Amino acid sequence: MDREHEANVWPMCQCATCATCQCAKSRNPQSNNIRLRHFETKHEKTFKDQADKAESIKRAVSRYGKQANTLKIFAIAKNHATEASYRIAHCIAKRGKPFTDGEYIKEAFLCSSEVLFEGLPNKETIESRIKDIPMSARSVERRIEEMAENINAQQIAWLKDAVVFSIALDESVDVNDIPRLAVMARYCDSTVREELCCLKPMSDTTKGEDIAKVFMEHFEERGIDIRKIFAVTTDGDPAMVGKQREAVRLIEEKVGHPIMKLHCIIHQEKLCAKMSNSDLNEVMAMVVKVINFIVKRSALTHRQFQSLLEEMDCTYKDIPLHSADRWLSCGKVMERFVSCFDAIKAFLAEKGQNYPELEDEKWVVKLMFLTDITGHLNELNLRLQGAGQTVLDMFETWTVFVGKLAIFSSDVATSTFRYFRHARELSSQHSISTAEICKYMSELESEFTTRFGVFQKYGPMFSFLIKPDSFDGQALDLSLIDWLDTQDMEMQLIELKSSTLWIFSHMKNMLSPSRSRLATDHSEACVQLKVTNYNPQIMELSKGKQGQGSH
């Protein structure tokens, strides 16, 4: 047998197989004699002549090639199904949906495919591909965990390369009463990133040393140098920034150089807005009491009130319940309550409910003022929120609002109410006493100015870090950046046009009551995929899997 025929009989593969009888033989060069002896022993008398032998070998090789091609197509189809399962699992995690929704998505896709692909020549192939997508709850769980690990690997790589980074810490208790520590980092790679590093459960106490320990263990396990930390933002909790053994101080000791310690701007704004004022608190308490009677007492009462609003052609067709944990809901509740004020009084009278405060002129003045001022505070809160804002943006927003408060105080003192719409409408009907309102405005302005002191201290630093090209270099405290390479700073400032140091506000991440059975590691993976700006490397992940169809 010549070498050309032998090469055809033994197609190149990891373990050579005889195309005639499918017998596997080693492809080791020393086994050529073994393969030749196999052919002479098994197949020499099979052929009539050389022409018959050549034709038989050609048919055998062609048949073998078709089988190999079929297997290759099958494997590619399975790999595509695996990649599709990753992409669907990613969508499930981004939307915060249960793992079991994978099977529901697949079922919906199959039902719609019967109509969607009607008339296509490859309809059966498409439906077969959909059926092959592994979308069981367990499969979705594994895909999400693997993608979260991939995101973690990307984060770690960039954090290791970052010159500096800032962190935010927040500790909250989820619906299962498990304390969770959320750690977010802000750093710069090819762009500025805000990333959730971890959402760690804390098994025992949540003291400052416990928080610091969990934080430092997380970064040490991943080989990230915490000496690169430039700033730490917290919600101001005593365990974070208390006087003894607080987390931030312990982290600073471990870091080994001074770090910028900030109290979340949004949290401080909420504290200012909720400052104690007994008279106004009583107004809010009465509003909540009335709403609870209308909305929560019985479904019938609620429906009757909704019908009354439609009959009176009110702007709103219902009023929401108030949530003390969500300050923005206060403004929405007050705005709707005032808009439906006449309808509410008529409905309460019809039900025989006596609330004399609703007829008290002084109480109504406070109600209108509280509605207006909470509207301004809500506007500030919304301006402070949102990803991608620098601390300088928030610093300037806060500064502008403090300036507005002085104008608001003057507006109230002169009874012009230019910036208080509801109070102005009420003043057009009768005179308003502004003594108590002026007192509240003075307290509010003082509260904002006092809490603003920390940011005034760091103001020049913020300007230097974020807008160095427009910074004049005056009044800059370099103690916070002594550990950085600041040689030839003047020359660097001339060339530098944008900052690579950013600081951000904190973010809370908790489980919802509808998913209270979600394990801590699974919830961490879901939240991470939901908030990250990185894209999981799905193609690489799917290539590393053996393609398997749905069971």
Amount of helix: 55-70%
Distance between the amino and carboxyl termini: 48 Å
Largest pleated sheet: 5 strands, mixed
The total beta strand count reads: 5
Assign the structural class, choosing from mainly alpha, mainly beta, alpha/beta, alpha+beta, or little secondary structure: alpha/beta
Mean pLDDT: 75
User: Total number of helical segments?
Assistant: 22
Q: Compute the gyration radius: what is it?
A: 35 Å
Q: What are the segments in which pLDDT stays under 50 over at least 5 consecutive residues?
A: 1-16, 488-510
- What is the spatial order of strands in the main beta sheet? 3-2-1-4-5
- The coarse overall form would be extended
Beta-strand content estimate: 5-15%
Secondary-structure element pattern, one letter each: HHHHHHEEEHEHHEHHHHHHHHHHHHH
In brief:
The chain has 22 helices and 5 strands. With 551 residues, the protein is an alpha/beta fold. The N terminus is likely disordered.
Helix and strand arrangement:
Layout lengths: L2 H7 L22 H12 L6 H45 L6 H16 L6 H10 L4 H25 L3 E9 L5 E10 L3 E10 L6 H14 L7 E6 L3 H4 L5 H9 L4 E4 L1 H9 L4 H18 L3 H13 L15 H13 L1 H10 L10 H24 L6 H23 L7 H7 L7 H17 L1 H14 L22 H7 L24 H12 L6 H6 L8
Parallel strand pairs: 1-4, 4-5
Antiparallel strand pairs: 1-2, 2-3
Highlighted features:
551 residues, 5-stranded mixed β-sheet, 22 helices, extended, alpha/beta, disordered N terminus
Overview of the molecule:
The relative contact order is 0.11. The longest helix has 45 residues, at 50-94. With 551 residues, the protein is α/β, with parallel strands linked by helices. Helix 15 (361-384) packs antiparallel against helix 17 (421-427). The protein has helices at 3-9, 32-43, 50-94, 101-116, 123-132, 137-161, 208-221, 238-241, 247-255, 265-273, 278-295, 299-311, 327-339, 341-350, 361-384, 391-413, 421-427, 435-451, 453-466, 489-495, 520-531, 538-543, and strands at 165-173, 179-188, 192-201, 229-234, 260-263. The two termini are 48 Å apart. The protein is built from 22 helices and five strands.
